[in-house]
Amino acid sequence: MNFRKYLVLAGVTVFAVAGDSMLSHGMKQVGSISIHRLSSVIFAVANPWVAIGILFLLAFFATYTNALSWADLTYVMPATALGYVLLALVARFVLHEHISPLRWIGIVLITAGVGFVAGGPALTEHPLGEAGEMPEKSHPVVVASGAER
Amino acid sequence: MKVLLPRLRHLSRSGGLPCAVSFILSPLRGYGAVAKASQQDAATNSSHISILYTWAAILAIVLFSVVGDVLLSHAMKQVGDVGDLRRRAGIATVIARTLSNPNFLFAVASMAAAFFSLLFALSWGDVSLVAPAAASLTFIANAVAAKIFLHERVDRRRWIAAGLVAAGVALLAG
Fold first, then answer.
1. Chain B: nearest CA to A94, how far in angstroms?
2. What is the Cα–Cα distance from A41 to A47, expressed in whole angstroms?
């Protein structure tokens, strides 16, 4: 794990939260869309918040894909959950909303879970993320799970 | 914990739960808006059937999410470390190799299916049930699937982490 990789993981968390929040904000401006006229959702893209939100979600997908190219799924997964924590902290310290005790416990649990995983190796075959020679090494895995499917 | 405790006490007095609920769920409200219109339609159905439908849709979300995540992880391990690949062969090669990987395309299709399952789930059930149930079940199912299909070494450390995160998400989004 080097600095670049931590930056990618941070990107996964931040882009997901930013994208979801902007999309949500934009969709509230657009208003309710009837389930019978789902095609009208296309016009929602005209809302700048929705458009920027989609761009952020694309950035999220790019960083998520990047992270999965050098780390295990079970390593990257908890990073996505940090988004919930980030949302709650923004709610508390930027928007000055109140967080219930149960929610603080949730935040502590997620943070502890992320800490647990982050302390271990990022990739099964290569402890501490020396993922340079991945394609050859991962080949047996490729064959095995290809057959499973 | 020392920092947290006074704050917890303060929060339990102030009882600002609804604000926090509405904010934490705010990302889903965009999708919820789509679903809300059909909630009146659903109200005509019996509640038992709609509970059954909701859980079926939640299971569909979990299934499609897990399949999508596992296939995407698998595809990216085939592509290799994109950072190294970009330095060696350029960004065009990275994009071409990723987009031409069939597992990647199946993964995207599966994630799209998960998204539409979410829309259906929200049209039948409450967002406060659907969001945390789907998210935390996906975490557990992902850990199991990663062990079986991706042969990741899911040691005790990662099992505990998956459990903690799933519980945390359920509490936070619940």
1. 12
2. 11
